Amino acid sequence: MFNAWNQTRWMKRLAVGPMTTSEYNEWLVRKINDNIPKSSQGNSQ
């Protein structure tokens, strides 16, 4: 599953190309984290 997630991220990065900035990366990470069920983060907190 982790590999599939990495592959999707890589494909998105390729599609965006030069538009990939640190701001976009931060937004993407936040968007991905929002999609992760809170129950899976319960152990780390």
List keywords for this structure.
45 residues; 73% helix; single chain; 3 helices; 0% strand; flat; mainly alpha
Secondary structure class reads mainly alpha
**Global Rg:** 12 Å
Distance between the termini: 22 Å
Order of helices and strands: HHH
- Ranges where pLDDT stays below 50 over 5 or more residues in a row are none
**Biggest sheet, in brief?**
none
Our count of domains comes out at 1
Strand content: under 5%
Number of E-type strands? 0
Fraction of residues in H or I helices: over 70%
Multimeric status of the protein: single chain
Instruction: Supply the number of helical segments.
Output: 3
Q: What is the averaged pLDDT score?
A: 69
Instruction: Sum up the overall morphology in one term.
Output: flat
Describe the overall structure.
It is a single chain. The chain has 3 helices and no strands. It is mostly helical and 45 residues long. The chain has one domain. The radius of gyration is 12 Å and the shape is flat. The model has no long low-confidence stretch (mean pLDDT 69).
List the helices and strands and how they pair.
Blueprint: H1 2-16, H2 22-35, H3 38-41
Question: What would you say about this model in short?
Answer:
The chain is mostly helical and 45 residues long.
